[in-house]
Amino acid sequence: MKRRIFIAVILLAVLLLGGCAGMEIQSPSVTLAGIEVIEAGLFEQRLAFKLRVLNPNNVEIPISGLSFEVELNGEPFAKGVSNKPVTVPRLGEAVLDVTAVTGFAGLIRQIQGLSRGSIDAIAYRIKGRFVTGSSYGMNFDERGKLEMPKPVQGR
Known about the structure:
About 20% of the residues lie in helices and about 50% in strands. The protein is of the alpha+beta class. The chain has a single domain (about 25-145), classed as Immunoglobulin-like, CATH 2.60.40.1820. Strands 1, 2, 3, 4, 5, 6, 7 and 8 form an eight-stranded antiparallel sheet that branches. Strand 3 (about 60-70) and strand 4 (about 75-80) form a beta hairpin. The longest helix has 20 residues, at about 1-20.
């Protein structure tokens, strides 16, 4: 009898572990949806970022906070954190309003890059970590381009 119980427990453990392996959660993708200047000082600037978070999973993801860094044109630009909770619906999206700080050097690097010539797009990289309600977090690292508006040609 004890042997049957032992075998049943082992089989149950194997089935549960196999089921959990099939429920692997993919990290959401994050894109930059907007940037606004909140405050501009001589030594640092505060920026408002809109981050679009896309959840490819069939389960919702409760996010209790995040930390992130933004690079523009391959150069470090801004860093930020947020403790605003949000739940990204299953197979859905959410837009997070977060703030970040950039220093004078990061701003000057971008101005110098823009002054070197005409730019059609600004390449960005956003990387960081979501703090989730469970015992694990989720890293993200995404790249994209912000297309610059084309000047309207007169007729």
